Amino acid sequence: MKDMDIAEVSRCTGVPASKLRYYEEKGLIASIGRRGLRRLFDPAVLERLALIALGRAGGFALDEISAMLMPDGLPKMDRERLDAKADELDRTIQRLTAIREALRHAARCPAARPMECPTFRRAVRLAGAGRLEVAPIGSFKAEAVSVTRRRR
């Protein structure tokens, strides 16, 4: 494959040219020359940009990603750091799952108002104590409540 100018790289990856220039300034990618005023890149930059996108999606900062990318284009991944980030993502997923389930429960709960539901109130208390992610509130099946059912 032939060298690619910045517009081609941007078109292929969806990364704006301004961000490509920023990545180059930060040392994440390197141009190999110019065609007129446009920067040229080796086609291997596409894989490097995909690695950067994966790192960003995984929550790594650009400086962390930079530390994992060698100048020769090969990644130097710290497996302990990757494992720690995976653990962090697990905790985030657990917290977001609990939040999602609390919201779904509130939307479908037979109680007239969500705050009249003991299950939802428990979720609110846990969230207020910053413990929603470490104390999941279960399946959120509608509990029997002694309140007026809401009208549909």
What topology does this entry show?
Layout: E1 4-5, H1 6-13, H2 17-25, E2 33-35, E3 38-41, H3 45-57, H4 62-68, H5 79-108, H6 118-128
Antiparallel strand pairs: 1-3, 2-3
Core attributes:
152 residues, mainly alpha, Multidrug-efflux Transporter Regulator, Chain: A, Domain 2, 2 domains, 3 strands, 51% helix, 6% strand, disordered C terminus
What does it look like?
It is a single chain. The chain has 152 residues and is mostly helical. The protein folds into two domains: 4-68, Multidrug-efflux Transporter Regulator, Chain: A, Domain 2 (Orthogonal Bundle); 80-152, no CATH class. The chain has six helices and three strands. It has a three-stranded antiparallel β-sheet. The chain is elongated and about 70 Å long. 17% of the residues are buried.
Compact overview of the structure:
With 152 residues, the protein is mostly helical. The chain is 51% helix and 6% strand.
- Over all CA atoms, what is the radius of gyration? 24 Å
Percent of residues in β-strands? 5-15%
Class inferred from helices and paired strands: mainly alpha
Q: Let me know the largest β-sheet.
A: 3 strands, antiparallel
**The number of domains:** 2
End-to-end distance: 61 Å
Low-confidence stretches: 139-152
Could you report the average pLDDT, rounded to the nearest whole number? 84
Summed up, the helix count is 6
Gross morphology: elongated
Query: What pattern of helices and strands is seen along the backbone?
Result: EHHEEHHHH
